[in-house]
Amino acid sequence: MEKKGKVYLVGAGPGDPGLLTLRAKEVLEEADVIVYDYLAHPEILEFAKKAEKIYVGKTAGKHTLPQNEINQLLIDKAKAGKIVVRLKGGDPFIFGRGGEEAEELVKEGILFEVVPGVTSAIAVPAYAGIPLTHRAYASSVAFVTGHEDPKKTDSAIHWEKLTKGVDTLVFLMGVGRLPIIVEELLKHGRSPNTPVAIIRWGTLPEQETIIGTLNEIVDKAEKKGIRPPAIIVVGEVVRLREKLNWWEKKPLFGKKILITRTQEQASEMAKMLRTLGAKCYVVPTIAIVPPLNWEPLDNAIAQLNKYDWCLFTSVNGVKYFRQRLESLGKDVRVMNNVKIGVIGEKTAQALKEWGIFPDLMPKEFRAEALAEALKERDIKGKKILLARAEKARDILPEELKAAGAEVDIIPVYRTILPKEKKEDIKKIFKEGIDIIVFTSSSTVKHLAALIEPKTLSELLKDVTIACIGPVTAKTLSNFGLKTHIMPTTYTIKSLIEKIVQWEITSDFNIA
Q1: Are residues 333 and 436 part of one domain?
Q2: Which H or E element spans position 374?
Q3: pLDDT at 509
Q4: Residues 42 and 157 in one domain
Q5: 116: closest CA among 7, 13, 229?
Q6: Residue-wise pLDDT tens digits, 148-172
Q7: Where are any strands of DSSP class E within 228-319?
Q8: Each residue of 37-94: pLDDT tens digit?
């Protein structure tokens, strides 16, 4: 039976990927083809891992494809039996030409579904601290296009009715026509003292807001060089921004932060930083892969009952140990006679998710602390399995051997250099960053290898350096770099708290 295609007209939201709807995420994960616009955030596209991605973005004066060709593309892909997502910034039916695309699909008898998005008309003012309605200021609101169909001979905008009959006006795509919009509003009776806000890149860390009145906003916008994408809000509600501005007051608002840990592990950290207003670049300088040879681990698993202790020093160690155990047809029961020691809360949590509660976790999340804690347990003559990366510091096994233990170092994963990230690194540093985060010595060494022949000290001379703990700081020092931010508890949460504290202190000192 021939597979029947379908088109989803999906709103990507106003910019902040956190405002994508759950339904939109589901549809993206199912899609065979994504046809996306200029304002679709790159992170949103990551949900469409298996899809062919086709960019048809439009910016002022530049159209990748004219609308009729976009319509035909949707039709052709659907007729080929594909699940097609037409991904649009904001909402597809609010000045998004989704209605026109839907009409063409109906003509061709193609199934379609609309997935509404959070429109920038509402979200962007909200992120600027401007409620579009308020009992004391506005009982009505209108959304107006600032960019009408150029084929029209007369404007369809009823300026007189808008000016006199609606409290709050929101213009989308209107920055290029700002002088005309202001002229029409003044001509039809709006007071020159009416407050106006222009919000560029709303809901993102790059958000920029200009406040003025109708009689001065054009000059202010010209001086600031404001360009699309931006929203214009006209009305008394703009006065509330002074009290309600919340997004731009986030502690890390607008800070550009580069995270160098693995993609999988960086996502949680990036999410936490973004909620604090930061713009995060996730460029892994390490990739985690299985060992070249499973035999040492397989042999250790087969003889687990001979070990007194099994030690895990990272979440990755737990992950790959567990995967290999299960691939051999075994489960957690083989661990029933072995005591478990770990470094760090996250490693402990990874074990708890597997149903194992560690017997030992030192308060300080370092190899030295685990070694000391084990020595207090009298490990002389004990047999210990150390499940770790192929290359790692030898301080832990050396300390344990010196205390009389028999230690088997079993590599359960390797860290490798993702050379394909070299161009991404170049691009990001060309744009400029404020803070770089290192969560292990490997991330430092691998970044140094990626940027050769440049040196780390050259690359990071004007960048604030944050690292997870003293071991990573020592590696940075070996490259001639000073660590500016380091927590006393070596966790991601504590590191982020220190970054916030650093920025608040820096702002205070500057002020």
Answers
A1: no
A2: helix 367-375
A3: 46
A4: no
A5: 13
A6: 655 555 677 899 999 999 999 999 9
A7: 230-234, 256-259, 279-282, 287-289, 309-312
A8: 888 888 899 899 889 999 998 765 566 788 999 999 999 999 999 999 999 999 999 9
- Alpha carbon distance 175, 152 (integer Å): 20
Classify 221 as helix, strand or coil.
helix
Give the position of tokens 């490259």: 479
Question: Strand ranges (DSSP E) for 46-120?
Answer: 52-55, 58-59, 62-63, 83-88, 111-115
Is 410 in the same domain as 422?
no
Q: What is the pLDDT of residue 332?
A: 86
The per-residue DSSP string of 112-145 comes to: EEEE----HHHHHHHHTT--S-BTTTBS-EEEEE
Confidence category of residue 285, pLDDT binned at 50, 70, 90: confident
- Looking up residue 127, the CATH number of its domain turns out to be 3.30.950.10
Residue 384 forms beta bridges with which residues?
Answer: 309, 407
| 235-257 pLDDT, tens digit each | 999 999 999 999 999 999 999 99
Helix (H, G, I), strand (E, B) or coil at 393: coil
Mean pLDDT estimate for the chain:
91
Q: How confident is the model over 108-140, as pLDDT tens digits?
A: 999 999 999 999 999 999 999 999 999 999 999
| Residues 407 and 443 reside in one and the same domain | no
* Domain end marker among 60, 95, 117: 117
Per the structure, the complete domain to which residue 239 belongs is given by: 122-247
Helix 492-510, helix 263-274: angle, nearest 10: 40
Domain count, the chain: 4
The answer to whether residue 1 is domain-embedded is no
Q: Is the pLDDT of residue 511 over 50?
A: no
Give the number of other CB atoms < 10 A from CB of residue 58.
16
Between CA 136 and CA 139 the distance in angstroms is 8
Where residue 266 falls (left for φ over 0; alpha for ψ -120 to 50; beta otherwise) is alpha
Say whether both 282 and 294 belong to one domain.
no
Tokens, residue 172: 């989308």
Residue with tokens 């350096």: 465
**Hey, which residues are catalytic here?**
37, 58, 173
Q: Looking at residue 444, what is its pLDDT?
A: 92
256-259 and 435-438: which strand pairing? parallel
Asked whether the beta carbons of 262 and 286 are under 8 A apart, the reply is yes
- pTM more than 0.85: no
Give the contacts of 318 (CB within 8 A, at least 6 positions apart): 312, 347, 350, 351, 354, 387
pLDDT digits (tens, 9 = 90+) for 478-495: 999 999 999 998 888 999
CATH code, domain with 91: 3.40.1010.10
